[in-house]
Structure formats: C-alpha cells, structure tokens
Request: fold
Amino acid sequence: MYRTKTCGELRIDHVGQQVTLAGWVQRTRKMGALTFVDLRDRYGITQLVFDEQKNPALCEQAGKLGREFVLQVKGTVNERFAKNAKIPTGDIEILVDELQVLNASEVPPFTIEDHTDGGDELRMKYRYLDLRRTPVRQNIELRHKFCLAVRHFLDNKGFLEIETPVLVGSTPEGARDFIVPSRMNPGQFYALPQSPQTLKQLLMVAGMDRYFQIVKCFRDEDLRADRQPEFTQIDCEMSFVEQDDIISIFEEMTKYLFKEVRGYDLGEQPFIRLPWSEAMRRFGSDKPDMRFGMEFVELKDVLSGTGEFAVFNEAEYIGGICAEGCASYTRKQLDELTNFVKSPQIGAKGLVYARVQEDGTVKSSVDKFYTPEVLNRLKETMNAKPGDLILILSGPDAMKTRKQLCELRLLMGSRLGLRDKNKFALLWVVDFPMFEWSDEEGRLMAMHHPFTSPKPSDIDKLDTDPASVLADAYDMVCNGVEVGGGSIRIHDAVLQAKIFKVLGFTPEKAQEQFGFLMNAFKYGAPPHGGLAYGLDRFVSLFAGLDSIRDCIAFPKNNSGRDVMLDAPSAVDDKQLDELMLEIRSAEK
Amino acid sequence: MYRTKTCGELRIDHVGQQVTLAGWVQRTRKMGALTFVDLRDRYGITQLVFDEQKNPALCEQAGKLGREFVLQVKGTVNERFAKNAKIPTGDIEILVDELQVLNASEVPPFTIEDHTDGGDELRMKYRYLDLRRTPVRQNIELRHKFCLAVRHFLDNKGFLEIETPVLVGSTPEGARDFIVPSRMNPGQFYALPQSPQTLKQLLMVAGMDRYFQIVKCFRDEDLRADRQPEFTQIDCEMSFVEQDDIISIFEEMTKYLFKEVRGYDLGEQPFIRLPWSEAMRRFGSDKPDMRFGMEFVELKDVLSGTGEFAVFNEAEYIGGICAEGCASYTRKQLDELTNFVKSPQIGAKGLVYARVQEDGTVKSSVDKFYTPEVLNRLKETMNAKPGDLILILSGPDAMKTRKQLCELRLLMGSRLGLRDKNKFALLWVVDFPMFEWSDEEGRLMAMHHPFTSPKPSDIDKLDTDPASVLADAYDMVCNGVEVGGGSIRIHDAVLQAKIFKVLGFTPEKAQEQFGFLMNAFKYGAPPHGGLAYGLDRFVSLFAGLDSIRDCIAFPKNNSGRDVMLDAPSAVDDKQLDELMLEIRSAEK
Reply:
C-alpha cells in the first residue's frame, strides 16, 4: 500500500504517530514560513504542513504543487494550533518529512469543490473529475448503501437474486427496443430488455417463489429531461400472493430503507392507499405529492349556471385550489401564474382567481359575472379564510383540466415552501384502469402491461365494457414521484388470451410475440405478482437531487450520448460486413 | 397469501395444526383407500393424504391430479406412520380437508426429478420446467448466496459497488464487440462492454479508491463449449496499491467465500504463487490443476543422444510424467492414451511409455533403442517406483509439447481419481509475459490487456527487448480453472503511450481509441490495479458442475441462441428503417 492511513481517519489520538498518506492536492497556501497543503481522498481531507525553516528544499517542492497533483507523503501527526471544527480531521495536521509526487495534473477544467464553476456539459465530459467532488461522490456512496440494504432486506425475506439475460428477444408491445445484430445468426437481432417482466414471470412458473434483481433496463425513447436510455430497476416477483401481500412486504422494505439508509422514520402507520380515480379527482395526478394538501375542490355546482360567465357555464369541469395566505399576491404575481397555466406545456385557456379579503368579502377576476352571494358560496365551498387566494381552472375535458390544475397546485406548493426535500410522503395508488384508449393506435392499450390481471370482480366486464375494467395494479408514490409499480399477473392461459384479444392481437400474433410465455403457462403457472422500483429515481429522492443523473456514475445526455466516452460512434466497415449490415444513406 | 406454511417447513412439532399449503404435484400414488400426493415448492416436499373413507369426493378429485398441477390445500398436520428420514418434512403429512386446483398442467416433456430423462435441448427449451428440478434450483440458490457473500465482504473492506454503463463505445482491441445501432445518432453504434476495464480505471482517476461490481459482460466470440456470449464478472479495482495488496485482499475474500458459502476451509497458509514460466515448465499450463502432483520431468539430458531413437534425438523438448501404480495398464489402455494424445485436439505425434516392473527393471516401448542403463536413469530421474507407468511426449516446440503433456496429465489425474470435485487447490500464477506474438496480426499483442503495467524492473527492456518484458499481472487458479485475473495498471500517460507504440498503435490511433482514458490520466491518475473473477465459472466450481450453464438461469446454446425465447430473431422492417439499417442479402 502506498499509505498507512487514509486522509479521513486521523484524530487527536494519533498525535505523534508516523504515518504515510496518499491523495490529491485540494489546495495549497503559504503563510509566512509555512506552506499548507490540503490532501484529499475519498475518505476526507488532511492538512499537510511544510516548514521552510526545518526543510527549505521540501518546502520549495511543496510550493510547486498544483491542484489535483497525486502525492504520497510521510510525516508525523501533530495537534493543530488553529483547529477546524468543520472537518473530522480538523484537530490535527501532518508535519511532512518526505514528499513524492506520484502523478502531476494539468489544471482541471473546473474547480473540484462542493460548488463548482463547471457547467453541465463540461462536468459530463470530464465526469471522472466531477466524481471527485464530495456531493457527487456522496450520491454514489448512497446508491451503494441503498442497494446493499435492498439486498439485505429481500434476502431476509427469502427472495433470490437471479440474473436474467440482457440479450433477449424483441417484444414490440411497449416502448421501442434497442436491438443487437447477431453475427452468428445473420439477419437476426437480439433486443435489450425494457424490463425482465416476462423472464421473472417464467421464474415464477419455474417455482422460484420469490425473485428479485437489481438490473439494467433499456428503452430507446426520445429522451426527456431526466430519462436515460439505460436505467436500473429493483425488479421483484412473488408467487402465491395477492395484492395485499405485495403491498405489505414492500411497504415494510420502504420503511426499512428510509430508516437504515436515510435515517428517516416513516412511522408505524400503513401508507395511504388511494384509488386511481380518487387520486385524479383530488390531485389531478396518478402520483400526487402528498407532502401538502391544497386539494382540488369541484366547483361546477357553485359556478356553472349561477352567473353570466360563459366560460364556466360551458365548462365540463371547474376546479379550484386554495393557496393559504396568498391573497396579497400582486397583479404581477397573478399574471405570472396565468402565463404559467397558459404556457404550451400546461395548455389551459386562462386562470380565474379570487382573493378572500380581511373583511371576509371575496374579490375576484370574474366579479362582474357573479353576485356576492355566489362568491361567498365559492369561499365557503373552498373552505377559504381571509388572506387566502382561490385559483380556478375550467375546461371541456375533466381529465385534462385536472392535470393542468395539478401543475398549478405543484407550483403553488413549491412557492409556499410546502415541498421540503427532507420530508417524505408515501402512498399507494391502486385500482388503475386496465386499459386506456390510444388515438394513435385506434385501440385499447394496456395501461400497465398486457400481463396485468384485471380485478377478479371485473373479469365479467371484459366482454361487455372492457374500458371500465380495473386492474389489480398498484404504484408506490413518494413526493409526487412514482418510485415503483406493479401488479398481480394473469396466470391463466385462457384469461391471458382474452386480454390479448381486447388489445387487438390476433391469436397468431399473440402466439408469435408471447408464445414462450403462454406455452409456459400450460405447465402449472402459480398465481403471482410483483413490482419494480426505479432505482435511479428512488436514490435521487433520498439524495434530494433534482435530476437522476447525479446518482449515476456515467450518465448519458439528452441525445443518448456519453460525451466522456464519445459513444455512440461509427464502427469499422469490417464489423458491419461481419454482421451483414449496411447503413442506409440519408435520402429525402 | 395462498398459504400459511411452505412445503419445506412442517416438523413433528406442528402436529395438530391447521395449515394451508400451495405448490406443485410431484407425484401421486394410491394405496388402498388412501391417496398420497407429494406437494413440492422451492422449500421442500410435503406429503398430502386423502382418505377415501373420510371424504370420497375429495379423494376422487385427488385421484385425477396430474404431475405439475398447482394446488392449494387446507388440512391438519399429522404424524406419519411410516416416516421418511430422507426429507426434513418426513415425520409428518397433511390430512387434507380442502383442495383447490389453482392451475392444471399438461404432461411435462421430461420428468421433474433430480435425474431427469430430458436431453439438453429439451431442458433448455423448457428451461422454466428444468429450473423446478432440485439440483438446478440449488445452483441458482448457491449463486445468490455467493453474490451476497461477495458483496458483504467487499463492503466491509470499503469497496463501493458502482454501476458502469452497458451502452458504451466500441474498442477494437480484444475480442469482438456486440454493437447496438443508435436511432438518435443514425449510422452510429454503441458497443456492449467486454468488461468495464477502462471505466473502472476512470473510477480510480475519479478517486473512488475501491470499486467493485457484479456485472454482465459481452463477447461476440465463436462459442466453444462452456462459453456464453453474455457472462458475469466480479469486477474489482483499487487505488494506491501494489500487487501484494491486491493478492492479499482477494485471497482473504476467496477463503471467506469458501468457508461461508461452501463450508470448505482453505486453511491459514497463503496460496502458492507460481511464476508463469514455472507453471508452464512444471505443468505445461498457466492454470495448473494442483489437486495432484504428477509434475513434468524434463528428460532431454536422459533420452536425447543417449540412444538410437531419432524422434528423441531430434526433439527440442522431451518431458515425462509418472502415473503411480499404472504399470499394469493393458495394451488396450495404452493404445487409448496414444490415440488421445494423437487426436487433433491434442496433436502429438506419438506417446512413449515405460513400465517399472515389480523387480525394478524398466520395460518400455523404446527398449530397442536404449540400454538398460539409460532406462534405469530414466526411472531414477522420474523418481518412479515399481508398479508405476512413465508417459513421455516430445516435440520440436517446447511450449506446444508441454501443453500436450498437460492434457495427458489431466487425463491421468482424472483416471486415477485425483481430481475430486470436493477438494480445492488454489494458487496464484504471477509474472506473466507482457506480450505474446500474434502470427495473424504480425505484431506483439498484449497478453492481458494494453493497460497492464510492466514489472517496474522490466520497464527498461521495453525499448530493447519487449518480448522478454514481464507484466505485473496475476491469475487466480482453482482446480485447473482460471477463476480470476488482473494486473497493476499503468497510471502514467508516458508509459501508456510507450506500450501502445510496442503494440503497433500510431499515436493517432491510440488517441482515437483510448483518448478518453489517456486524457483522464493527465489529471492526476493514482497508482491502481485490480482484478476480475468469472462469476459463472467460480459458482460452477462451488457447485461441482461440468458446465457453467447450469448455474445460469437462462443460458444460451453454442450458437448463441436462447432456444426458450427463440432469440435472436428477425425484426420489423419499420424498426430497421428507424435505425437507417439494411440487411445485406447473402451473396456468393
């Protein structure tokens, strides 16, 4: 070893010891005859001292060290004169006797500090330098601890971690696959798994009983902010279970993770379970942020047909939220909110507001259309107090308007400081619709995936009214983020065939695409179900990050590029020849 | 839950309890008025009893159950009349009150027993049934335990598990890459990593200090037996270390794994460290099986020029092994050995043998060429006793002949029962040559990989005699299998450039292919090194398997196909269009 101690472990008890350290130069400074060097490694920072009067040559050498040089030093642990309470090694310093530069460094393109001057592009290009920064490194350490805790918990519950293949078959249902040409089978392709969904179901057929895997998944989607073409799932499946069994074990795991990894106590109470329809009604979202209230109040009874405001009179849906203490919002602030809801991402036509004044009267942007009595009923229905601001959206499509109101609610929550990153509100959203209509495809699509079981009580409706069928599916939501989701699966080949039919598959197409699974179901498939967590997202929540990127060691950018590796890139013609492939020239 | 207990947990203490079990029908048998059903799950087998006299309808239902039906039963735990000491639940049975068939099963294509009648093809096609068999399931369980133990050990030693990307850049040095067309970057390709070698080195540059990952790797090679296109590595890297540090920590890990996972004590002694040249000289292999001796004895001094046998007189190398107690081998047995060494896979020209008879005289196949004195010297040099058989190979190329003799040694070891699967002999092979000559490429190639450091004392020879330079590389060998290997890496950009030059890279080509790594080395790369274990192989050794396939849940066959999923397969033209790809028609 190049060292006897790390840069994070020396304390006052070590004073007088001879030690060897190795690490990077964080900074150097000269104070009179003394030169100080902060030496950094993964474990901390230790101050080195070079004394011109004791060893001028060594001190001169120290004076020439640049940022990020890699050093090995030998010296004696000394009690500091001016202690630094901010770092664990702040009581001591090293009086250096020997200095060896193990490697020099060019001046890094940005500062390796907690708050860096490097922009996103530069940080990603030099990710190996960015990772030296404490906050980024801590995310990676957190992810490591998180995964260990997951494995510890699930192993204790009898789950086996089983690796499933990465080179699998292409399944057109769902997102777009990445495909991998096979040289040994020319003209044929593997696909990278979007998730091990069917494979874990086969493991249940195989009698594995309880499976999990922390596993890479791949989706060739047009990337929005905070999506990665490769991402990591905690993928789980259990046999002989019902929805309650799965919810209860993974609720326990979640509480365990928060306690062990994050030091946060979620309490003894079970998580709230919110039916999907209720979540949409009360929060306009299937992943409501429940760190704060500001629930939707439906106002059609109060505002439709009770005044001359045509917009409300014609609306299919009118909903409001009450922003506590915001009656004092200025014209400018209200215009900002209006512009926000009218922006293309939100798409509302306009915003109606009503201030509840100190005297209890209501002053609104639609005063001229309504009597004071109606406005007073609005106030009461909204349960608004003097000083509150009521914000109202309306529209011809209830679901769309609710989603717009949801965005406004989240904005107001942020503005009012109600979305504290150190507070966590968890819940289950349950009773999802089985299908949703796709205008693009002109057919019903599986909302979850085609292997999800309908609720047993709804199976009869598959023939008569499939759109109304609810699924035995559940999502775990934390702070407005879907961290996990799953379902009870179909284990009956006849029911599975019926679902494929509703989804518009011919029996032949179903057989072609999912034959391997349907065939397996003929040999004694047990009842089973499971769920999967988005690991990157879950860890990001723990770390309080805005983006999942910073808990991924080497993330890709929004064009799916790794700018550090410069991947993807062109390959040799020889390689394409072996694969029997040609690149089509771009034609218009 | 569909059950209150598993099929593996009931004991004599549970007698009288009401329980619910779920599982698969292993077998049914009728004995008079009683019908017995063995119900199986992952945890064991429990005997169910149906009594015609108590409940004729239920008993009739039980009589109709087929193999692999999935059942839920309720009943009372009863002490067995005829106990079965072979299974942990053998003291009890369940008197069944209620029976529900959760799923029927077609007759499986092979028997789900420890020894099945299913051939390899059929087992792979119906792998989900094969996995129900206890020995296969136990391998998967072993793998799970093995990985947990690895993580536990490395976490305790301060290693962080860090995920590296699966979609990376193509690096032509090494084996052939699998490539993945990028839709968002038309005409460009990702590659799947052959190993995270360069990424883990970047993590060292990033200051991560101690990294590991249990990670999928990919190689598009023509598959020999026991190679998979995707395989799993335990990948490790450390900073500020020398070879001894790495060897010592991973030797400790190996002892820990054998003790914890396999219940096998490797003892306190450090593993033998054998220089590569010595391993080749004594065993003709860089991965000698050291469960037994039968070391090579060089016989040129004894047999070349001491008689009229032209083959030996012209040979560059003559080597022998002594097979204890095999002097009684028949003509037929000796012919078998001769045919073995002359087979195309081995490629020797012939085999010379010499029996040491009871009276101490030597009787050999080359008697007519040598005096009894020479043959007696042969016996003494070989240290052979009466009853032993001396087997001798010779040839014009010492290395080739040694490799042939190695195969013969392994065969004799197997025949003599010296290769017990429950005995483990571990060692390190060290001091590998840095380069090996490739006739195909017409240049020196890196024996390990181009980032391996030469031994510091050999750096001077890079300019004068590169072929003689030894590397700071090491392999861990167990029972004749290379389970892991690694090296100290180059951390100096100048030395790295020199190695690329020896390997025939122009500076431009080196920059194009490995620029990202060489650039990173400019910013303070620490001294570092590491190693990687082949997980599939390591687990196979623990499980005593002949093939790595049976410790992989869903393996591929020798054509790289997953016969269960039927992957790879053709993809939609639409998908190829989006990727701007065309499949070249096969032309002659």
Remarks:
- Chain B has three domains: 12-103, 137-274+426-551, 292-415.
- The first helix of chain B runs from residue 56 to 63.
- DSSP finds 17 helices and 23 strands in chain B.
